[in-house]
């Protein structure tokens, strides 16, 4: 997608220069300099619309930006889950997340709030200004507006799960706006906007898949299925009717995939999940786009601490590493836990392509780029252009399996969806008739924990289910009272179901009023 976005931005800039090009000196002095472009003067041609939606996509990369030494924003949604720990002690904010003592000053919390609302602000500009661009191809306009709706909905979906009642801003703001200091809206109102946006995106003429990395119909439908699944659970607790909506929406994607297996499918191997050449294809329904000429892949905090697994030699921070008990919780023979085959590795090659050596512990392989870092006898390119997955078809299957089971117990289609995940892992799945609704429910939950780990998904499962996978018992504990292996024996509390509002936001905006329960205010 990067080449497309850069081309569109360049074309938009060129368009601005043409507007002030062939004029006399007097006219020139009356023209507005391109550097003084405003939202009002900018949105005048279709290329401006393309540049604006490109800027909105670019905002997704806040997730990988730094959050102090040896840490990135994405670790917010991993450190809290109990499936990872750290080999470094040099980032106090990260350690506070692991220890469950984070507050409104924690950098990751602040950066997530700011990053999400920046995406929302950019999407609002697109939705407000692009409809007025004329002439512009109607299909192009509708598509861009659909993409903006998808991006805004996705940002709000993350935000409402993290903070609960939040400001609901749907128009561009200036200091003169009546809602420049917005109050918090109810979760119900936020979810209504999310559903409305995703429904509009569904009708925007998007292709089922888009190898450029832009929003596509499979991603929109799966995101909507996930929203319905979340609304069925806590805190809205809408129950059976929303499980049915989730199942039906996910099944639309599955039906299309079954008819078009070369377009949407599970990858044959786990190595394909983190292969550069597979970006935005087949299983990857939506990804955050990375290319080193603009921004390289941000997941290097998964590298082990000072072990020579890349061309850089002994390096890496080990800021996020698997909890050993979680790694050991995979069933015997599960390919996902096999060294360099699945989602972990326990050995690698010195400096990326030299002699094989033992790492002494399991590390996350899911985001490791062999092409960039090297592999047995093959030097790496040193250019980590791997994308970061946001929605995989594996999740679509598991959404369907879980939601359909809640509608009326496990049926053949729900069983087949879960079994596909286990088949790829080379695991034997008990016959459908051996499951009850309760045992199938937990079987699907286990697959979510083991299949979707380290993709910033597990925390949201914990919150909507009010359950946490216990990697020692292989069962599920209640959220409140569960002790993460990485938390220094600090149990999860009711307050942890929400993040604290960033303290600076409370200081700047008195209409936010009170802090989320259990956290210190201002």
From TrEMBL:
Segments passing through the bilayer: none
Pfam family, one: SusD-like_3
Residue span(s) of domain SusD-like N-terminal: 72-229
Classification via SUPFAM superfamilies: TPR-like
The UniProt record lists the keyword Hydrolase: no
Subcellular location per the Swiss-Prot or TrEMBL entry: Cell outer membrane
Main location: membrane
GO cellular-component term (any): cell outer membrane
Alphabetical keyword list: Cell outer membrane, Membrane, Signal
Domain RagB/SusD: from-to ranges: 342-519
Family membership noted in the UniProt record: Belongs to the SusD family.
Protein name, entry field: RagB/SusD family nutrient uptake outer membrane protein
Organism for this UniProt entry: Spirosoma foliorum
